[in-house]
Amino acid sequence: MEEVQPQSIEKKSETTKQLKPAPDQKYKYKGPGRPTILSEEIVSKLEYCAAIRATITETCSYAGIARQTYYRWLEENSELSDRLDDLREKPFITARKTVIDNLSEVPTAFKFLEKVKPEEFADSLNLRHSGYVGGEVPEEDKAVVAEFHGRLKSNMKDRILKKSNENNQQTSASVGQDTGSGNETQPKDDSSDLRT
């Protein structure tokens, strides 16, 4: 077991003292780990990640910073925050330009029209509901509703019974094939083969 030398203890306490910020200074960590100073290199990495719409986790990992640091920087620097927001929108602008530039192609033009004017060009299913949503069913319709429910229950019951009968027939047919085909091997009576 190694003995701890007093010098190493003193060095540790000096390092700990350095980590405490002066009242008029912002805190800057000077130990090993991720950098907390916003450098041009880190800004360019943040901008690159924003331009390719990377997630915040991916961005922080690529830039080598903690998520808390990232959010703190955005809070402290509104210009950086605005710049990154603008870069995140750039792919949409590029995509729009590409679509507009390729409208001379029929599939692209049709897709564009489907999105922009769906009432005219999109495949749609128009459903209209003329029944009662909430509230009471009028007396004259109650008999129709009761008849419908009765027929529905009857149809469901018939389908269940039919399915059950089909399953029973299939089961009995497969059992019948195993026992009724006559091809089964009968156990041989070995008593007649006994030789004395």
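That was protein one. Protein two is written in the same sequence-then-structure order:
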Amino acid sequence: MKAGAQRGLWTLREAFLISLLNNWFSKPDGTQMQEQLEGTPLIKPSSTDHPLYETLVEACRTVYDPEIPVNIYDLGLVYTIEISAENEVEVTMTLTAPGCPVAGEMPGWLADAIGPVEGVKSVNVEITWDPPWGMEMMSDEARLELGFM
């Protein structure tokens, strides 16, 4: 890779990080996030022992943020995949920043990816801003892809 190209990538990464930092602690309406009580889980656990779970994770990995070359699952945007006994799927996700240009579209993209999975009865995708997304939520694969490892 040419030195100029590498420098351009770092500039893009730095701009991405600055954008995230500016938006981490605010909701879309500009109000501050509420402080969590100590010991309260920040993210509801997923139904990891459900037979559909791994297939749903793979479906999530087919959805990409158009501004970042990493799927939304490894990016850490999918917080919870909850699957009922009737195979009704509830997904809680976030975005990298409240001002994300695809905020209105990405939940639909995720529902469209999960809906066709054999056995899924219904899908509901909700966006949350609490807790705010942070770089520590990315998988090692995502960090490697983005050059943070």
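The CA atoms of residues 107 and 125 lie 6 Å apart. Keep this in mind for the problem set.
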